[in-house]
Amino acid sequence: MADSPEEIKKHVKLYMLIGVILFICTVLTVAVAKIEWLDFGARGFDAIDMVIGLLIASVKATLVALIFMHLNHEKKMIYWLFGMGIFFGICLMVITGFAFSDPIYYEDFFGR
Amino acid sequence: MEIPYIVEPRKDTGLNNSKIAIWLFLASEVMLFGGLFSGYVFLRIYADYPWPERTLPVLPGLINTFVLIGSSITVVFAWVALKLREWRKFQIYMSITLICAALFMVLKGVEYNAKFGHQAIRLDDYTVIEGHAYPQEEGGDKKITKNLNIQAEQIQIDLKRVDDKYYETMGAQYGEHFVLAEDLTLNSKTKYEKGTAISKELIDAAKKDFIDALANNSNVNIAVARQASKDAGNQPELDGKRYYDKDRKDFIAKRTKELKAEQEDNYQNITPALTFIAKEGAVDISVNPRWGKLSNPKEGEKGTLKLKDETLISGTTADSSITMRVDGIDFRHTVMKAVEKGIDPEAAINNSWLLKDQSMKLIWDKHLVFVDKLQNYLDEHDKEPTDLDLYRITWQEIAGLMDKDIEDLEKMDHHEIAALFPGDIEGFAGANHTRVHYPKINVPREQVRFEAVFSPRWNTYYATYFTITGLHGLHVIGGAIVLGYYLFFGRKMYDANPEWLANRVEVGGLFWHFVDLVWIFLFPILYLM
Predict the structure, then answer these.
(1) Cβ-Cβ contacts under 8 Å for B265 (sequence gap 6 or more)
(2) Which residue of B29, B124, B185, B374 sits 20 to 30 Å from the alpha carbon of B222, by its own alpha carbon?
(3) Cβ-contact B354, B328 below 8 angstroms
């Protein structure tokens, strides 16, 4: 980090703000899961709840990564390194996802 | 030796080396946790049982989320303090971070402890009951007994598989009660007469003899095979024949037979198992259910208890039932199986073994009253009750309704009944058995399809829960050790070059934020979905 002490002092307020947003988002995540009139879609857990829950979590994770981990102003090299990690992480999930098209799940697989 | 580029950036990357290193490490961590998360997704999609969604108490998870986010903020502030050369402030913020880490682990420990103390049984008809297992006779020693019991008349020990750990523990129960059923003569000419008591020495001697005999016999066989092959090579009429030619094969088979007959005296007797019988009537034997399996769990009938080392304990099955206080009933699996077979779910529940018990039937009837009120309430709001509402009775419901009369409940509305349920704090990490005496039930072993505490053994949900949160907990501990090192031993580094320590704390902080980041996803996925 090449930040000067003056710049860092300016950032302190931002860190506090992000902290508060993270706390609020956490309460929000629990609220949409537990409070009945905040429960979107059908009663109980369903796809909409999953999307909302993961969306809030993604927002929180992005804030942590951008502000606390300084990814909002980082060297190109870091983006490459971490970006590749995320890329391969996603690849891993997608490749496992091919299991869905495994012929063993065809109805007549064992019949043949 | 001086390590280069720990403070000043390298020209080609524009960064100091430690930062590159930590980001490389974090990239590999993303892939590690990504793999585990995708494992969770697939286990959940393909689960052949109703997924225990929203089953964990949210409060400890929520507090832990606050604690981790708080520690993420303080670790940034600790770094800021170092950048501004404020050592005292750095100490304060870093200390708070470490206290948060400790608090997180303590809460995790409370949660884990509650899980490991919670018994679950999947009954033969797929009803799941949860609660605390208790001694058969309460008031006695507090040790939970869910052992498999048998009145043993005969023990057969497999010398190939007999395991010291099993034998040494079981040996105390076998004692002097069991004796050899037949005379035993070892190849070493040592003799044990019929009626010799079971002992470690006897088993060890017989096992050694068995293994030696196996080795000896296979050595003789190898020598015979070699000789037969050699003889085949010396036969002029087999000249030029390959090993797969019929003539050569026939010759070798014939020669082997002859040689084996010649070597008859060199072969040793193989005794693969020893049989012991009870000297004076049947003996009570009690075994941890994880060590073995009862062939016939029905009390009073003939059965065999097979230990994992293939020891067979035969006799009459004794009472091996599990007594537990029930704080959760789940019929969702019963319903799932009924739907698969095309049976009416309500009928399947009403015919279940559990509802033959009066106290359980009463709880179910009260639950039906509650569901009825809930249904009316949801109808007004155009919503449908979920399977969890319909078929799962939570500990809150049992605690709230067990002492109420069903007639009183019928007069109340949905909100009034729900208000009877205890709050989240009372069951901080699960049902609190010291405050509420949950109804007791005795489950005979033949009704038990599967039983376990809430451990990775119970189902794939808990397996992933413990794997991912356990690994995450290890990361918390590792991060705390590194950050603690900077706090307690960082002064020297700070005096030598404060920027050096600031960089170290930034790198340690990056890891700490990553740990927080993983938890940000873990919390909603494991606790709220």
Answers:
(1) none
(2) B185
(3) no
Span B456-467, average pLDDT: 95
Helix B498-523 to helix B87-116 angle, to the nearest 10 degrees? 30
Q: Give the pair of three-digit tokens for residue A37.
A: 């009139």
CA nearest B104: which of B472, B486, B432, B431? Answer: B472
**Which residue among B20, B69, B528 places its CB closest to the CB of A30?**
B528
Residue type, B462: Y
Query: pLDDT tens, A3-37?
Result: 678 888 888 999 999 999 999 999 999 999 988 88
- What residues does each domain of chain B span? 18-117+459-528, 148-317, 324-453
**For B381-427, what is each residue's pLDDT tens digit?**
889 999 999 999 999 999 999 999 999 999 999 999 999 999 888 88
Tokens standing for B27? 């990239």
* Alpha helices per DSSP H over B234-245: none
List of residues 6+ apart from B454 with CB closer than 8 A: B115, B116, B118, B120, B130, B462
Q: Tell me if chain B has a CB within 8 Å of the CB of A49.
A: yes
Query: Could you tell me which residues are beta bridge partners of residue B191?
Result: B185
The phi, psi pair for B179, rounded to 5°, reads: -130, 160
B97 neighbors B520 (Cβ within 8 angstroms): no
Q: How far apart, in whole angstroms, are the C-alpha atoms of residue B101 and residue B474?
A: 11
- Closest-CA distance, B386 to chain A, in angstroms, reads 6
Residue from B63, B96, B381, B513 to probe the interface with A (highest A Cβ count within 10 Å): B513
List all residues 6 or more positions away from B124 whose beta carbon is below 8 Å from its beta carbon: B353, B446, B447, B448, B449
Q: Which tens digit of pLDDT belongs to each residue from B107-157?
A: 999 999 999 989 999 999 999 999 988 765 555 545 557 889 999 999 999
Neighbours of B148 (CB within 10 A): 23
Taking the CA of residue B65 and the nearest CA in chain A, the distance in Å comes to 8
For domain B18-117+459-528, which CATH number applies: 1.20.120.80, 1.10.8.60, 3.30.479.30, 3.40.50.300? 1.20.120.80
B-chain residues near A65 (CB < 8 A)? 513, 517
Q: What is the mean pLDDT of chain B?
A: 92
- pLDDT tens-digit readout, B245-279: 888 999 999 999 999 999 999 999 999 999 999 99
Nearest 10 degrees: Cα torsion B8, B11, B12, B16: 0
Cα(B444)–Cα(B442) distance, integer angstroms: 6
